[in-house]
Amino acid sequence: MKKKYVVILQVLVAFVGLLINRCSVQTAMRQRNEEEYAKLMESQANRSSGQQVAAAADSEPVPDSAQAETGTVEIRPDTDVAAQAEAQALAENVSEPQTGAVAAPESGTYEIGGIRVTYYSTVHNDKTGNLRLAVIYDGSDLNSYVADFYKDFVVDDAEILGIVNLGLKTVVRVDEIMEGWLDVTISEYTDGEEHDAIKLFSGDLLNHYWINMETGEIDNLEE
């Protein structure tokens, strides 16, 4: 009987030892797994930190020396603002285009008030460059069209308009004597004078008066 208890006790001791050994093995395996898991997490953390550092390095401005080496130029917001401000300053300093300027008419054929006009913007032998010439063949009253001719063909106060009427054989010299008033001189036509500024207005004087361009009022100077 005593032997039987001894055997049972030995079996129990062996079983308890087996349990203890198994628990020790499980504990060791769990610790090893925890250590490996900790190492894995640390490795991932290090890798993520490295990626963030690389991204931050890529986002940093490239130094001027590096830009010179690579041939690239960085456009910065402050540069854009400065360029815009400079462009605006230049635009403000540009003179506004003059308004009201009238282009000088070109030589050619025109019709004014029903009268056909051959206009010359230059006259041969004109040393001043201010002579303008209108040649017509019409019997209408001069005062009915002289102001219109002057307004259409003269763009500067220094200019003088000559009107050669081959129908009436007269030559008219017209210039602005004062604001709104034209000085009109009528002389006899001499053959070919419309072709030479030296001969122009050389005929005998027929009449001389002033005429208001707006009202048509006449101040006859020959009376």
- Strand arrangement across the biggest beta sheet: 1-2-3-4-5-6-7-8
The portion of residues forming beta strands comes to 15-25%
What does the main sheet amount to?
Answer: 8 strands, mixed
Could you report the average pLDDT, rounded to the nearest whole number?
77
* General form: rod-shaped
Per DSSP E runs of 2 or more residues, the count of β-strands stands at 8
> What integer value in Å does the Rg equal?
55 Å
Characterise the protein shown here.
Helix content is 40%, strand content 23%. The longest helix has 58 residues, at 2-59. By secondary structure, it is an alpha+beta fold. The chain starts with a helix and ends with a strand. It has helices at 2-59, 64-70, 77-93, 146-153, and strands spanning 108-112, 115-120, 131-136, 160-165, 170-178, 181-188, 205-212, 218-220. The protein is built from four helices and eight strands, in the order H-H-H-E-E-E-H-E-E-E-E-E. It has an eight-stranded mixed sheet with strand order 1-2-3-4-5-6-7-8, with helices on one face.
List keywords for this structure.
223 residues; alpha+beta
Please outline the helices and strands.
Elements: H1 2-59, H2 64-70, H3 77-93, E1 108-112, E2 115-120, E3 131-136, H4 146-153, E4 160-165, E5 170-178, E6 181-188, E7 205-212, E8 218-220
Parallel strand pairs: 3-4
Antiparallel strand pairs: 1-2, 2-3, 4-5, 5-6, 6-7, 7-8
Brief synopsis:
The protein is of the alpha+beta class and 223 residues long. Helices cover 40% and strands 23% of the residues. The protein has an eight-stranded mixed beta sheet with strand order 1-2-3-4-5-6-7-8, with helices on one face.
